[in-house]
């Protein structure tokens, strides 16, 4: 676990101190009309309150899982800070929220994901402060909720732990980008075709790169979760991640 933590810290250091041009899918500062920026902040705030309560409860019941919470934040920070060029001239990136969602649930990730987005906006010029509410709603709320529902559904269906984690991470990633496309389409409806035409345009921009990224994120999340299953069984049991069969 210590080796993994050092690797995570190394990647964060590289991302912080190696200059990059920030042009990824986080909605950039000032891009949204002010009324939509305020609207998404208002929608996001109740989830942040629920997230704070969820984290406080988890840490109070299982103090030993603090390191796992930090790992979830570092994982999301590293993956969502990566910028992969798209064939359309834009960029896409993973989200990294699937891991923390499986470990702590969707509401906890609303706080973790929002903190990640805040640091990226301040340190990497990746996203923005006025658009933080919108970015948090798509990546830290909608993505984790989809990942959680998929994970629970796959588990109840009797699918293997690895398959459930893969689907949760991959579909949570895709759900984030669908929500971002909805946000942009609502703010900038097309003159011809309105919301649907605009949504199709925004969603299509990232489709070619985001699907392979979602698959890659799902596979990476499975690798990390299997590592935790091997070396951090007690923490996973405390968080009720492992089923009786997996234990």
UniProtKB/TrEMBL annotation:
Pathway: Cofactor biosynthesis; adenosylcobalamin biosynthesis. It is a multi-pass membrane protein. Keywords: Cell membrane, Cobalamin biosynthesis, Cobalt, Cobalt transport, Ion transport, Membrane, Signal, Transmembrane, Transmembrane helix, Transport. It is found in: Cell inner membrane; Cell membrane. It comes from the Bacteria. GO terms for biological process: cobalamin biosynthetic process. Signal peptide: none annotated. The keyword Manganese does not apply. NCBIfam families: cbiM (TIGR00123), PRK08319.1 (NF006184). Forms an energy-coupling factor (ECF) transporter complex composed of an ATP-binding protein (A component, CbiO), a transmembrane protein (T component, CbiQ) and 2 possible substrate-capture proteins (S components, CbiM and CbiN) of unknown stoichimetry. This is Cobalt transport protein CbiM. It comes from Peribacillus asahii. The lineage of its organism: Bacteria, Bacillati, Bacillota, Bacilli, Bacillales. The gene is cbiM.
